[in-house]
Request: fold
Amino acid sequence: MRELVIKFSTEGERFREIDESKSYFFSEAEKAINLLEKRLKNEGREAEKRFGFYMDGEYLLDSIIAINKNKKADQIEEHIVKAFTSTDQWTKEVAEEQVRKLKNYVQNEREAFLNEEFRAFAYLIRDVFEKKVDFLFSLKQTQALFQEVYAKIANGFFSQLEDIVFSILDSYECVVDFNDLLKGTYEETQLNKEKWFSNEHHFSQFVRFVSANYFSISHARLDVLMSNNQLYQSFQDYLFEVKAENDFFKSWDTNLNLKKEFERKWIELQFEGLTINEEFVETGIIESILVGFFREELKKGDLTEEERRFCEGAARIEKRF
Reply:
């Protein structure tokens, strides 16, 4: 989860400088308030804007920034520090610890955002993930994803930025589906995802997967490569010309299950950080799994002679007399 989040309220007057649907980064929220203050003062107006503040996923503050004609508005950091140190709900020690944590997070964010390319990446990945899957990576996780991909791009980062972020979204959806994280209610699925991605080992796997997925061919190519593969065509002949006479539905299920095995193998290899090209899909995934299938078939004791010869040929087993 993101360390610091500012959410502006939809109540009261709406302003073009502020998007109430967005989970703002801290410095981004301060910039929006500064732009709003500048415009309203030029217009001779005053206004208030309510916001909520979250730290480490915990809702800590509901407050209002006041913009007056004759007084500069508090910076959000200053405003939150005042609220933390004046509350009677915390001891002095707890308030001081929360302030220290806040200032440390703010400093880390400001330093990270000095990199223009990272800042653009962080904003876009936030926008895409928040709207499409309602999930936010922490600043540290966002930096890890950025560094993994950025290090492997020679030039033209900004021209590839949108493709990179949507590839990360594709990786995220693959991983969520692969690990069955969408079971249960909305709250349960959010907790499933937070637990999985907050695990350091799991997130390291995800980072490798993201890089491998971005530089690999698309998963959508699997169907085409399957249908054009000679061994897969033999597999289809075996199922639907040789075996289907006895049990068509079993052959149909076998076909579907083998395709799932191809997909699973592809994802497992990307978790290891392997970049997948067409040649590897054909030999390392499709043919490797199919040869294994035919070898397992040969272990069955009820094969007809025709079925056995077919499997021996497909599994590339030489029969010696």
